[in-house]
Design the sequence.
């Protein structure tokens, strides 16, 4: 039924949003000493986290877009952004003593998640265009 499909889609979006947060979170541990000190330069760490997070985020969006209408890309991005920010605020931020406020967190970490919104939106747009182009090409082929 329609509700079952919608529940499946919502669970998929939430699952891949969680994965897009969890993989970089776990990967970050490799950059710290057992004492909790950064083992590499801060800029190296931040660059690696952006690369890991961006790659996993794009992969997760691609997985989600297989299930949802391509026109829903922006909504998928909003959900992913909200889930990632929520998990950071609940789990990560309490352990970061140098992020005393939500503003500090947003400036140092949170705003770096915003591109995921545009990746999802653009992936949805490309999927819509590809679907329309594919349908048009199929119609041309049939007319030959």
Sequence:
């Amino acid at each position: 039924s329609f509700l079952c499909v919608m529940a499946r889609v919502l669970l998929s979006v939430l699952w891949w949003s969680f994965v897009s947060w969890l993989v970089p979170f776990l990967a970050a541990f490799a950059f710290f000493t057992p004492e909790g000190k950064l083992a590499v330069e801060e800029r190296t760490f931040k660059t690696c986290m952006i690369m890991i997070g961006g790659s996993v985020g794009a992969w997760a969006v691609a997985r989600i877009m297989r299930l949802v209408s391509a026109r829903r890309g922006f909504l998928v991005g909003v959900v992913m952004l909200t889930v990632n920010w929520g998990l950071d605020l609940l789990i990560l931020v309490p352990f970061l003593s140098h992020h005393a406020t939500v503003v500090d967190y947003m400036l140092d970490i949170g705003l770096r998640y915003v591109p995921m919104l545009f990746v999802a939106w653009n992936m949805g747009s490309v999927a819509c265009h590809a679907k329309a182009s594919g349908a048009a090409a199929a119609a041309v082929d049939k007319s030959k």
Q: What stands out?
A: The radius of gyration is 19 Å. DSSP finds five helices and no strands in the chain. Residues 115-143 form the longest helix (29 residues).
